[in-house]
Amino acid sequence: MAALWRCDVCGRGDDTVRDCGIPHLPLAVCDPCFAEMARARRSPQPRPLDGRELMAALLEAVAQEDIRRSS
To answer: Mind spelling out the 3-state secondary structure of 18-36?
Structure first.
C-alpha cells in the first residue's frame, strides 16, 4: 500500500491529497483545500482571514518578537 501524503494546508492525510505540480514549490493539498484556494483565487477581492488564520498569524508574530528580543 502506498504511503498517504499529508495536506500542507490542513494536515489531512487521505487519498484526496495530491502534489500541485509546481516544480520549484513542493505543495500537496487535499481536494477541500484546493477548492478553497481556487475559490479564493477567482474571487474579486481577497477574503478576510478566518479565526484560525488570524490566530496562527498572531502566534507567529509573537514567536518572531520573542526570537527578536532574545537575540
So the answer is: EECCCCCCCCEECHHHHHH
Q: Check residues 4 and 43 and name the one with the higher pLDDT.
A: 43
DSSP 71: -
DSSP secondary-structure letter at 10?
T
- Contacts (Cβ under 8 Å, ≥6 apart) of 19: 5, 26, 27, 28
Q: How far is CA 15 from CA 3, 4, 7, 26, 53, in A?
A: 10, 7, 10, 18, 25
pLDDT in tens, 26-61: 889 999 999 988 887 887 777 777 888 888 888 888
